[in-house]
Design goal:
Elements lengths: L1 H18 L44 E5 H5 L6 H8 L3 E2 L16 E2 L7 E5 L2 E2 L29 E7 L4 H4 L6 E7 L6 E16 L2 E21 L3 E12 L24 E16 L2 E17 L22 E19 L2 E19 L14 E21 L4 E19 L2 H4 L16 E17 L4 E12 L3 E15 L2 E12 L3 H5 L2 E7 L2 E7 L5 H6 L7 E14 L2 E18 L3 E2 L4 H7 L6 E3 L1 E20 L8 E17 L16 H9 L4 E11 L2 E10 L3 E2 L10 E2 L3 E10 L4 E9 L33 E9 L1
Parallel strand pairs: 4-7, 22-26
Antiparallel strand pairs: 1-6, 2-3, 4-5, 6-7, 8-9, 8-35, 9-10, 10-11, 11-12, 12-13, 13-14, 14-15, 15-16, 16-17, 17-18, 18-19, 19-20, 20-23, 21-22, 23-24, 24-27, 25-26, 27-28, 28-29, 29-30, 30-33, 31-32, 33-34, 34-35
Length: 796
């Protein structure tokens, strides 16, 4: 299989070379009245992965993608996570459903690793993760990741994606790489747009077929640039989103006649976002800068249906059964302020950032069966809150040693805190609210930690052809102690058109406060059956009794080697990598008292029938190849117009090489990590993804055609023979957009996402007796079908 995948990608690259196809990168956003600064392919200057000034993406020692705001905006989706996954082949953005809060805070992955193993920056500043801990059975189970959708695409000039381990440069979380969101900087000009779309799709599930027209989405956004003195700018962006829910549930075979009783698909979302980015010179070579973003998002997703004939729903006021709605309200505030300038020959950058995310839970259209007929139909369930302060001092200087030597060093201090607040009593008492039970006072917690780190980074142009970059970083955390990491990168330019590059590095990810302290007693659906279980910190008394221990950081060793070829408007980069992880964190299976008399005796004093907690100890190996080929032909003024061709692919193979099989106190131990958990890590993201894009423009008229091939993804079950696994299959998704887009004045675009109405393979009826799951929710391209949209706008 591995050799087949490699052959597939090599064949795709060779085909691209033969036909002149090319990469998804564009050369940068055009803001308002700014001229088109597009020039030679690959000339985009990057700030991610290097601390030298003026280095382009094709001159770096590590692979960096540059994705423009235009590329993100020329799609039907206005959701940043989905838009980024469409143009970056190594990024996956599954759309889970029926996974509680993860329906609302949907994580992205890089190179198939956990969502919390990629560091997210905005304008180079670390941003806060979500307060949500994904404890459901989706991709990224156990992770508390950054929510990419808190930043609107309209606010972005471009995104830089460093596809390489970078903990020695940036600290915790950068095991898979770094995503740096660069906000728009404009002194003048502006734009406004409104996008409306709906689904026109044939839904063919295992138990029946139907057609849907509707489920509309609406997004309105605007940005404006203002001058601030002679050299300053303020750019303000606002966005409003209203997305109606989709439903791809199957027909429920438990009712006669069968009908759709569930709601399986994208949640209902209404959100408001505002972003500001500013900078101003203050004289003496110094400038002040800052940015801030605030978002309020209301999301409503569905739990599994409760049928009247299978529960006592009629006794609590639902004679026809009910469908619990999980309502999350997420408010996210994040920003940074700083100053940069020169002290003698030294460049200095000092900034402070703050981020806070609060997620409040409410369960609607539900009941607490323990309360009988007196049960309310709506419950406030409590809230999760995470915030962090980050302060950075970065200093650099260029020396005339060798061809040049750039020395950078600095320090970073960070304070994080995490809090759980209880819900109303009726949400958690007894069996709790159906669908999502509330947090009890015993679950309420407030914890914090601090960390401080220092780094040194030396980048040396030894000769005109040979570049070496060495970085080392040490960090101290108040909860688990110290860690040190290093990175060595090198690049050799054989000729002006051919270069080889490679890196070796170590990395780490500190266990999040969410992983260390999240606690809840709730219903967990296993095999279609709700089970009352407790999720406890690994150092809680019940977890310690079962063998829980303080969590340690995950550690990695990253190796990569690649080549860069460029000539005129053509460039090709191919990078192979291997990532080895140890002490990897994962949420254990539910350890029930029924496992053995020993476990029953351990759990009895704590009055819980079952428990689970986080454990270190997984080991994994990830190998893959990224290839990006790009060719630009002509200009918009040419008789045939300008063509921008794209072909970009990722082949990724993940193997779990070691799994903990016992705890310190339970012998023999129950299964700590079931087959489904292991295969989710190995096969929950596509092993192959290839994206081809053609952009054509002549004057104000343009066309974008994109086709993306996704390899098979497995949504596994615990049956050893795999008979109940759900596979997405191998599929090709095509997108088309036609637009009239002058530099100034009115603009219009029409398009179709998933033009040919492709779905993942259906979930088999035998695996889905309730009909709640029409398709695998691990699908990397979702499961909504054809989406038609129109976009109206104006530039000034």
């Amino acid at each position: 299989m591995r050799s087949f995948r490699t052959a597939l990608l090599v064949a795709a690259s060779v085909s691209a070379l033969g036909c002149g196809a090319a990469s998804a990168q564009e050369t940068g956003a055009q803001t308002g009245s700014q001229p088109d600064t597009t020039s030679e392919a690959g000339a985009e200057i990057v700030v991610t992965g290097t601390r030298s000034v003026g280095r382009s993406r094709l001159d770096t020692a590590s692979p960096v993608d540059v994705l423009s705001g235009q590329a993100l905006g020329r799609q039907g989706t206005t959701e940043l996570g989905a838009a980024l996954a469409a143009v970056a082949p190594s990024i996956d953005f599954p759309r889970p459903s029926a996974t509680d809060g993860t329906d609302a805070i949907r994580p992205a992955t890089l190179r198939g690793l956990s969502p919390d193993q990629v560091l997210v920056l905005v304008n180079g500043s670390r941003v806060n993760s979500s307060a949500l801990l994904n404890v459901a059975g989706a991709v990224g189970r156990g992770a508390a990741a950054v929510d990419l959708n808190t930043i609107p695409t309209a606010a972005l000039e471009r995104i830089e994606v460093l596809r390489d381990g970078a903990s020695a440069q940036y600290g915790s979380d950068a095991i898979a790489g770094v995503i740096n969101l660069r906000l728009r900087e404009a002194r003048s000009g502006g734009a406004a747009s409104a996008t409306y779309g709906f689904y026109r799709t044939d839904i063919n599930t295992a138990a029946g077929n139907r057609t849907t027209t509707g489920e509309p989405n609406f997004t309105a956004s605007a940005w404006q640039g203002f001058g601030l003195g002679e050299d300053g700018f303020v750019t303000v962006t606002g966005e409003y989103v209203n997305r109606q829910p989709t439903n791809r549930a199957d027909f429920d075979q438990r009712v006669v006649p069968s009908r759709v009783t569930g709601r399986f698909g994208d949640p209902q979302v209404e959100q408001y976002t505002g972003t500001i980015n500013a900078g101003k010179g203050i004289g003496g070579g110094w400038s002040l800068y800052g940015w801030a973003s605030y978002q309020d998002r209301d999301t409503r997703s569905a739990a599994f249906p409760r049928l009247a004939e299978r529960t006592n729903a009629a006794a609590v006021g639902y004679p026809n059964g009910f469908l619990p709605i999980i309502n999350t309200t997420s408010t996210n505030a994040v920003g940074a302020v700083g100053a940069r300038g020169d002290i003698g020959d030294w460049g200095v950058d000092l900034h402070v950032g703050y981020g806070r995310n609060k997620i409040a839970f409410r369960t609607r259209d539900t009941a607490n069966f323990s309360l009988g007929a007196a049960t309310p139909k709506s419950f406030y369930d409590g809230a999760l809150i995470y915030d962090q302060w980050v302060g950075n001092l970065d200093i650099r200087r260029k020396f005339d040693l060798f061809q040049s030597l750039n020395l950078a060093f600095g320090v970073e201090g960070r304070r994080e805190s995490y809090k759980i607040t209880a819900g109303e009593e009726r949400s958690y008492i007894g069996t709790g609210a159906e669908g999502f039970g509330g947090f009890a006072p015993i679950n309420a917690i407030e914890r914090s930690r601090r960390s401080i780190s220092g780094y040194v980074d030396v980048e040396t142009q030894v000769t005109r052809s040979f570049l070496v970059d060495i970085a080392v970083r040490g960090e101290h955390f108040t909860d688990f102690g110290d860690t040190a990491n290093g990175k060595l990168s090198a690049r050799y330019d054989v000729t002006p058109w051919l270069a080889f590059r490679g890196t070796v590095s170590t990395g780490f990810r500190a266990p999040s406060l969410q992983q260390q302290y999240y606690t809840s007693v709730a219903q967990v659906v296993q095999g279609g059956v709700p089970v009352l279980t407790g999720t406890f910190p690994s150092i809680a008394p019940v977890a310690e009794a079962l063998g829980g221990r303080p969590l340690r950081p995950e550690k990695s060793t990253n190796l990569s080697v690649g080549t860069v070829i460029r000539a005129g408007g053509f460039d090709l980069s191919v990078d192979a990598y291997e990532i080895r992880l140890r002490d990897q964190l994962a949420l254990s299976e539910i350890i029930r008292s029924s496992f053995s008399p020993q476990v029953a005796a351990i759990l009895a004093p704590f009055n819980v029938p079952s428990a689970r907690f986080f454990i270190n100890g997984l080991r994994s190996r990830t190998r893959g190849i990224d290839a990006v080929v790009h060719y630009r032909l002509g200009t918009a003024a040419d008789p045939a117009g300008a063509f921008d061709f794209t072909l970009a692919g990722n082949v990724n193979d993940i193997r779990i090489t070691s799994v903990p099989t016992n705890t310190a106190t339970v012998n023999p131990a129950p299964v700590l990590f079931a087959r489904s958990r292991v295969l989710t890590i190995e096969q929950g993201t596509p092993g192959e993804k290839v994206t081809g894009t053609i952009d054509w423009a002549k004057g104000p008229v343009g066309v974008t055609l994109r086709a993306t091939y996704y390899g098979d993804v497995n949504q596994p079950d615990n049956m050893a023979d795999g008979s109940k696994d759900s596979h997405t299959g191998q599929h090709l998704i095509s997108d088309l957009e036609l637009r009239y887009q002058p530099r100034h004045g009115a603009q219009i675009a029409f398009g179709a996402s998933n033009l040919f109405d492709v779905y993942p393979d259906r979930t088999l009826t035998a695996n889905n007796p309730s009909g709640a799951l029409g398709f695998p929710y691990y699908s990397p391209f979702g499961f909504n079908g054809r989406y038609l949209y129109a976009r109206l706008g104006v530039n000034w």
